[in-house]
Every structure is written in structure tokens, then in C-alpha cells.
Design brief:
With about 180 residues, the chain is mostly helical. It folds into two domains: about 1-70; about 75-185, no CATH class. It is about 80% helix and about 0% strand. The protein is globular and about 50 Å long.
């Protein structure tokens, strides 16, 4: 259910685009409204906002707003690239700042891995995010808007799922069993 909630604005963007005869401006307005609604619902339910929702909403409002104000769809098409590159940079920065990389902070309560594996995994996630940003730009500049909208929903999610499955095989080879349930080496 959380996964569906996290993709709520993207799903509504896709549905609005398809139902309006490929009107990216209406779809963009729907996505902005959905992002605001998503944050409001989360706030009222938990009395806090998740960083990912805030970052995504800010980028959606900025790039979506530019798309609507300037009537140029390229801005909303750049949003996934900027978001992925931002995540990639945060993951890279965490390799050098703080006591644990981001991937360990996100997954460290669920599994135990050797420290070097956490750093390697974090670097691979960084590369993945940056690569997805470049792939998005390739689709933006080499295909029509309808293809990009399909890629935004199915391509990016598909790439992410394949990456997560591949990552799980890698993680499985390195998981250590910590009887204390502690975080890691």
C-alpha cells in the first residue's frame, strides 16, 4: 500500500495524460495537485512529512510549474532526471560524510552486512540513480511525449525493480547473521 501511495502522483499523471488525449499540461496540473494531496494526507495521518515526499513535491511544483507557466513540456520531462541525479549525489556524498552510507541508514535495521559491502552497495545505488537520469534524458530527446510518459511510469519503475532484484542476489551472498539484531560491522 505504501508503494502505491508513493507513486500516487506518477500514476495520476499517467492516467490524466492518457484520458485527456495526451495533454501533458493537464497531466502536469493533475500531478502537482496529487503531490500536494499526497503530502497533506501523509501530514494529517502522521503529523510529519517524509524527506522523499518533500523533495519530490518541490521538484514537481518547480518543474511542473515551469511547464505550465511557460507552456513547454521539457521542464516536466527533466524532473525525473533531476530527482535521480539528486538522489545519486546524496548517496555519493554519504560515502564520505557521516558514519554510515545512505543505503545502510535505509536498510540497516532489516539486514546486517559487512561495512565494505554497505559502501559498495551505496556506490552502486549512486551509479544507478545517475544512469536512470541519463536514460530519461535519452528518452526525452529521442522519442515522442507519449513514449516518454510510458517510460516514466513503466520504464523507470521496471528498471528499478530489476535493479532491486539483482541487488537482492548480491546482498544474499553477503548477509551476516547477528544474533543481537544489531546494525552492522
Amino acid at each position: 500500500m505504501k508503494l502505491l501511495f508513493d507513486f500516487f502522483p506518477v500514476l495520476l499523471f499517467f492516467v490524466a495524460f492518457k484520458l485527456t488525449g495526451d495533454d501533458i499540461y493537464i497531466a502536469t496540473a493533475v500531478a502537482i495537485a496529487a503531490g500536494i494531496a499526497q503530502s497533506a494526507i501523509f501530514w494529517f495521518k502522521h503529523r510529519r512529512l517524509e524527506k522523499m515526499h518533500v523533495i519530490t513535491l518541490v521538484l514537481l511544483v518547480v518543474f511542473g510549474g515551469a511547464t505550465l507557466l511557460l507552456q513547454d513540456e521539457v521542464y516536466i520531462k527533466w524532473k525525473p532526471t533531476v530527482l535521480n541525479w539528486l538522489f545519486g549525489l546524496v548517496f555519493i556524498a554519504s560515502q564520505f560524510l557521516g558514519d554510515r552510507p545512505v543505503v545502510q541508514r535505509l536498510m540497516g535495521q532489516a539486514i546486517t552486512l559487512p561495512r565494505r559491502i554497505w559502501y559498495r552497495l551505496n556506490l552502486v545505488w549512486s551509479v544507478f540513480f545517475i544512469a536512470v537520469g541519463f536514460i530519461n534524458l535519452y528518452v526525452v530527446y529521442n522519442f515522442d511525449t507519449d513514449t516518454w510518459v510510458n517510460f516514466k511510469l513503466f520504464g523507470i519503475i521496471g528498471l528499478t525493480l530489476v535493479f532491486i532484484v539483482a541487488q537482492s542476489f548480491y546482498i544474499g551472498r553477503h548477509v551476516t547473521h547477528d544474533p543481537e539484531g544489531g546494525e552492522n560491522n
